[in-house]
Amino acid sequence: MITPAAVGTADKVVHEIRRKQRADGPATVLGIGTANPETCMSQDEYPDYYFRVTNSEHLPHLKDRLKRICKKSGIEKRFMYVLNDEVLEAHPEFTDRNLPSLDARVEITSKAVPELAAAAATKAIADWGRPATDITHLIFSTYSAVKAPSGDRYLASLLGLRPTVSRTVLSLHGCYGGGRALQLAKELAENNRGARVLVACAEMTLIAFYGPEEGADDTMIGHALFGDGSGAVIVGADPDDAVERPLFEMAFASQTTVPDTEHLITMQHNMGGMDYHVGSGVPEIIGSNIEQCLVDAFDSIAVKAKWNDLFWAVHPGGRRILDVIQEVLGLGDGSLAASRKVLREFGNMSGTTVVFVLSELRRRFEANGVEGAEWGALMAFGPGVTMETILLRIASGLKKN
Ligand SMILES: CC(C)(COP(=O)(O)OP(=O)(O)OC[C@H]1O[C@@H](n2cnc3c(N)ncnc32)[C@H](O)[C@@H]1OP(=O)(O)O)[C@@H](O)C(=O)NCCC(=O)NCCSC(=O)/C=C/c1ccc(O)cc1
Fold this sequence. Notes:
By secondary structure, this protein is an alpha+beta fold. 41% of the residues lie in helices and 21% in strands. The strands form three sheets. It has a nine-stranded mixed β-sheet with strand order 5-4-6-7-1-8-13-12-11, with helices on both faces. Strands 2-3 form a two-stranded antiparallel ribbon. The chain is globular and about 80 Å long. The protein starts with a helix and ends with a helix. Bound molecules: p-coumaroyl-CoA. P-coumaroyl-CoA (WCA) is lined by residues 65, 68-69, 72-73, 174-175, 205, 208, 217-218, 221-222, 226, 265, 267, 276, 278-280, 282-283, 317-321, 348, 350, 382. Residues 65, 68-69, 72-73, 174-175, 205, 208, 217-218, 221-222, 226, 265, 267, 276, 278-280, 282-283, 317-321, 348, 350, 382 line the site of p-coumaroyl-CoA. It comes from Zizania palustris. Residues 15-239 form the Chalcone/stilbene synthase N-terminal domain. Belongs to the thiolase-like superfamily. Chalcone/stilbene synthases family. InterPro entries: Chalcone/stilbene_synt_C, Chalcone/stilbene_synt_N, Polyketide_synthase_type-III.
């Protein structure tokens, strides 16, 4: 017969096993790296390039529209793999979404996307300062390379990760992919003592590059805003101060789905690549919901926050998204400077972009010091409409600067 005392002892043993498996402190950003394809184009030149290579000069009104959107985009340049002339010379079918081309696109991206991710991850690992074989978990997020075995396997082999690394792929989360991946990394790091999680996000617009069509407004907006890039972050708890440099603690993370908005941002593979839709009300929907996400998040950790005292890592989905957020939260002009700079220099690289913003914030804190800064908010938005919120706190490695 099992006595209550024996049950009590067993419970204590299980409790102790669970306690020992978990980290003591919060998940912390320990390294960041970013990378882009070699080819870059100024936003001013893009409409001429795009209409020339897609043989669309017979649609001048659409070209004018693209020019208008480019001018208002807040973007100065973007990096894109597809700008490499050889790609379109070898695959003229990529310029027409009505021609079958998904196989050829996936063939290219299933190699090129993990390779771009490896470039960013190599920098993040060097920044972290420990060997790649110390990585215990890999989270790879992309919408651009859907295939199995998927890019995480290739990425792990490019980086020389250990065969027992625990891999997860996030696919088609679009612009909130980076936020989602970081939240999962937080859960893994806090629930597995000693875990070191590599988050790698990489996006290539090649999967959705094609010529303009009458009435297809989304094509214009996508080709005006989206760029290619990769961002990687090492996340772990209880840092070893002798070799690791804690940058940002991740104090709290949540996800909110805005009801009745599933039609607003969509992505779907088809025989000619990937179709997408970006509804016109997206900035306003985000603007109407962002404050509640922040209030709920800060209430959860019982911190009274003033929006203008925070540092901000907001996904720059488009210039207007940043304008609306700044207005509804009553933020001062410089608050979203890191997001605006990333938008200006790289465009919207979907889920990857928020890692670039985090990297830019870190650069600013290292250059100017952290005085007056303690709490910050990382926010990312995408299909759903889904809003990711992560509350950040400046960690000791940035304070030492
Ligand atoms: C820079 C914009 C596009 C324009 O600036 P504006 O201050 O609003 O200027 P206007 O009001 O004068 O609009 C300029 C033109 O843009 C058009 N426009 C204004 N939003 C729209 C609109 N959603 N649709 C299609 N025309 C529009 C607008 O109709 C107008 O056309 P036109 O009258 O012919 O000059 C601005 O509206 C803006 O930042 N919008 C936010 C874009 C946005 O929602 N981004 C978040 C979602 S992105 C996402 O989920 C990514 C998915 C993805 C998918 C595929 C990939 O490869 C990669 C990623």
